[in-house]
Amino acid sequence: MPDKVAPADIDETPLPREIPIAYAKRIAAAKAKKAAAENSGAIVVAADTVVALGRRILPKADTAEQARSCLKLLSGRRHRVLTAVSIMSPEGKLKTRLVTSIVQFKRLSAPEMDAYLATQEWQGKAGGYAIQGKAATLITFISGSYSNIVGLPLHETVFMLKDAGYERV
Fold this sequence. Notes:
This protein is of the alpha+beta class. It has one domain: Maf protein (Alpha-Beta Complex), CATH 3.90.950. It has 5 helices and 5 strands, in the order αββαββαβαα. A hairpin with a 2-residue loop joins strand 1 and strand 2.
């Protein structure tokens, strides 16, 4: 169990022409560096999850309109869910790993989109959906790590923590 959970308040604006992989790695590393600066001597875990449609980074939906726009783009298509995990060791050594999963939505009707938006599960979620909730009924295909799609690739994170000197009890 973590000793502390603290958000790293950083600017998450994509750089001009930044591709999704580079963006996810940059943001996760920046979060880890900021958290490590505020918690010296700790093992710091930070991550960022991106929903990517080609070279396009879909937003973390703040409004129903943003979520609807994402769902329209994802409807009937495959997309990538990229999570970069950065771990800073107590000695200040930073390691970042990227995990990619593929997800496909069924073709969504307007009433299906309306029903999903009414759940409010999309709020603050990359790509405007949360697979661990009602969106699971709209998914026809996944390849890769389910926990990555939820937001943190657990297998890879545990391996990285062990490499940083943390042993599970």
